[in-house]
Amino acid sequence: MSTKRTVSIHASIVLALCSSRYFTIMPEPCQVCFEPCTKSCSVCKTAHYCSPEHSRSDWKRHKRECAVLAAGIEKQVGFPLRVKVAFFPAAGGEARIVDLPYKLGLDSCTPTFPFHQLDLSPLLGRVTPAKTRIEINGFHTGEPLGHQLQLIYNDNFLDGKCPINKCIEELHGGRGYGWRDNVILVRQPVPEERYEQYQDITEDDIKAAKNYFRQGGNGRAAIEASKALEELAFYKAMGFQFVDLKS
Predict the structure, then answer these.
(1) CA–CA separation, 175 vs 146, rounded Å?
(2) In this predicted model, what pLDDT tens digit does every residue of 18-72 receive, in sequence order?
(3) Residue 84 phi/psi, 5° resolution?
(4) 83 neighbors 119 (Cβ within 8 angstroms)
(5) How many whole angstroms separate alpha carbon 123 and alpha carbon 157?
(6) Are 176 and 217 in contact (CB under 8 A)?
(7) Do the beta carbons of residue 87 and residue 99 sit within 8 Å?
(8) Cα(122)–Cα(102) distance, rounded to whole angstroms?
(9) Which of 190, 188, 191 is nearest to 199 (CA)?
(10) What is the CA radius of gyration of the chain?
(11) Is the pTM of this model over 0.70?
(12) Burial environment of residue 170 by CB neighbours within 10 A (0 to 12, 13 to 18, 19 or more)
């Protein structure tokens, strides 16, 4: 059999498999409940929903990204979107809510849930950011928040060359850890599918962070505890089992 005829036969098989008779559209997860569905947003065709109710309930979040998704993520110029974050300025004063630019990106592991790439430069400058997680209203004790907060700060602030954050120092009266440089507070939803997405911060979130700073004591311990929790979650995800030696 000639090469040309072999290619022709292979092409015919591919066309047959891709025809409506053989080809089935794989369902995408709903943006709200993550259950498989085939209906999508009528504008961007990217966000999928299992019901009109879930589409309406998610519109407040989805509407600011819909036009970008409709035009194509690859066509974004700069950081066209905005999310509200809390800013704790090193110069002092009250923590305040500000808009922070971000853009959408795609991850092969969660292609239907674009991640948010924050532009930290307006508030942190050109530094290497580090993160500490807050999940309760306070430091050692407090009610669960139902979502995650993250403190984003200069990764090199422990070297002592950055100015003391007077905004945070005013909260603990000099009795807590000497956080340095500007600090940002962002809000993340709980579902793992949205791990790299951010929601608008609220005044209650700022109150929880203030409690964290007031009760936190040694900030270095808070950072180490956060890293330990992340390492524990990683090893559990890898299938490792842990034994409680106290029992």
Answers:
(1) 29
(2) 444 444 456 889 999 889 998 999 999 989 999 999 999 999 889 999 999 999 9
(3) -85, 130
(4) no
(5) 14
(6) yes
(7) no
(8) 11
(9) 188
(10) 23
(11) yes
(12) middle
Where would I find the H helices in 29-86? 52-57, 59-71
Distances (CA, A) of 247 to 233, 239, 241, 244: 21, 22, 15, 6
Residues with Cβ < 8 Å from 168, sequence gap 6 or more?
88, 176, 179, 183, 213
**Of 196, 209, 215, which Cα lies nearest the Cα of 97?**
209
Q: How big is the CA angle at 152 (ends 151 and 156), to the nearest 5 degrees?
A: 125
Provide CB contacts within 8 A for 86, sequence distance 6+.
95, 96, 97, 98, 184, 185, 186, 201, 205, 206, 209
Residue whose C-alpha is closest to residue 176's, from 185, 161, 165, 163: 165
- Whose structure tokens read 């924050």? 118
Cα separation of 55 and 64, whole Å? 14
